[in-house]
Amino acid sequence: MTAFSTLIRTASHEQHVEAETSTFMSDLLGGRLGVEAYARYTEQLWFVYRALEESAERLAEDPVAGPFIQPELMRVPSLERDLAHLRGADWRSGLTALPATREYARRVTECALTWPGGYLAHHYTRYLGDLSGGQIIRDKAEKTWGFARKGDGVRFYVFEQIANPAAFKRGYRELLDGIRADDLEKQRIVAECKRAFALNTGVFRALGEEFPLSA
Ligand code: HEM
C-alpha cells in the first residue's frame, strides 16, 4: 500500500505546479516585482498563519493533528518581525486581508474547529512547503530587495529551531505515514490538501491582479 506521505505528495503534484508557476510567483521569483508586492504578500501570509497557529494549542491534544503541532514551526512571531521591517512599527494599522486571503483563513479556522484531519491538510500544505520551496523564495528575496541573509524581511522563511530541514521533513513524513485515519478519511485529507493549494493559488491570483507588470 502506498505510504500516506507519498499519496498526498503525488496527489497534489499538479496543484503544486500550478501554484509554483502562477504569474505572481513567477514574477516574484523572476525578480520582476517591487518590494511593495513582497510586503503585500507577507501581510497575506500573516492572516493565514494566524489562523493556523491560533488553533495550535487547542489541537495539540488531538490524536490526528496533535503530533504535527510543533513549536519550532510557529511562524507568526517571525512574520511580525518581517512586517515591522517592511512596513514600520505601526504595520498593523495598514494591514488588510484580500478577499481571497479571508476565504483561505476562514477555511483553515473552520477545519481547526470542526475537523482535525482537514486542519492537518492545511498544516502540511504550508509548513512542508515553507521548509522546501520557501528556501528558494528567501534566497530570491534577499537578492532582489537586499534583505540581510536570513535577517529581517525574510525571517518567515528561517526556521531557527530546525537545524536540519531535510531530517525534519523526513520525520514529518513518518508522522503522516502513521496517522490514525482510515482510507476514506485519508482521501478526504488529500482532497482538502488540493483545496489548500487552490486557496493559495487564489491569493496569488489576487496579488497578480494588484501588481501587474507595467512593462
Ligand atoms: C515558486 C514557488 C515554489 C517553489 C520554487 C517550490 C519548490 C518546492 C520544492 C523544490 C519542493 C521539493 C522539496 C523536497 O522534495 O524536499 C517543494 C515541496 C513542497 N511544496 Fe513547494 N514550491 C513553491 C511553492 C509552493 C506553494 C505555494 C505551496 C503551497 C502553499 C507549496 C507546497 C509544497 C509542499 C507541501 C511540499 C512538500 C511535498 C512533499 O514532499 O510532501 N510549494 N516545493
UniProtKB/TrEMBL annotation:
GO terms for biological process: heme catabolic process; heme oxidation; response to oxidative stress. Heme b binds at R9, H16, Y124, R173. Pfam families: Heme_oxygenase. Keywords: Heme, Iron, Metal-binding. Coiled coil: none annotated. One of its GO terms (molecular function) is heme oxygenase (decyclizing) activity. InterPro entries: Haem_Oase, Haem_Oase-like, Haem_Oase-like_multi-hlx. The keyword Zinc-finger does not apply. This is Heme oxygenase.
